[in-house]
Prior knowledge:
Layout: E1 2-9, H1 12-27, E2 33-39, E3 43-46, H2 59-64, E4 68-71, E5 78-81, E6 85-91, H3 103-120, E7 125-128, E8 131-136, E9 143-152, E10 155-163, H4 186-190, H5 196-210, E11 215-218, H6 221-226
Parallel strand pairs: 1-2, 1-11, 3-4
Antiparallel strand pairs: 2-6, 3-5, 6-10, 7-8, 8-9, 9-10
Helix pairs in contact: 3-5
Amino acid sequence: MISVLHLGRVDYASALRLQEHLVDLRKQNRIPNTLVLLEHPPVITLGRNANDSNIVVTRDVLAQKGVEVFEINRGGDVTFHGPGQLVGYPIFDLRSFPEKVGVIEYVRRMEEALIRTCIHYGIETQRIAGMTGVWTKAEPERKIAAIGVHISRGVTSHGFALNVTTDLEYFKLIVPCGLTKPVTSIEFETGKHPAMEEVLPIVTRSFGEVFKSQILWLDSLDDLLSSAPTPQDTPLREPEDLRKLRGLNDTHLA
Length: 254
């Protein structure tokens, strides 16, 4: 079973803190495998292997454009997140699946789920040897989905970013993933402007298929956290800055 939680638009710092909290709970087996789906306000993230020179404008320019910058522990180089991009954070225990899922297999399954999503929109996509992510087959090959993961004691965090209606001008601020290949979106490839609510069930259904799991949609973060068993000696309390994600204060939404 994979629980799915759609949080809408969430600032990156809150989402990062949420991931850390959910990873801790998953390691304790206090929540099930969970796929968190959301959008971010404009933000650039640098993975463990990032080269700072792949941000091609100054930090002052980024600040003027309202783009935040975060250095994080996922694999990969520099990438951009923003409105119109579906970001997925799978919090999975890879040891929990009936078939053994190693790191490479995990990434390949994520790629496959995104390839199937693109097929739904008539976009032929592919993997490219030595390059993580999903690319169009049409020349020139364009990247439509980026993947960067972190795995600790078998539990995953970070994940994927699928460009749906993303403003591709933002990618001119960086060298995406350290590569010079162009970036694209579902909107650019099809000329259509799909609503995020339309894309969500397609992505989640594809995840269910490739991970051979049932999908359970949750209405709120509260539904996920309130279902976690609570040992008497370690009461379940989310960090103070995450309570706003439970509907107690939604000022984090952009």
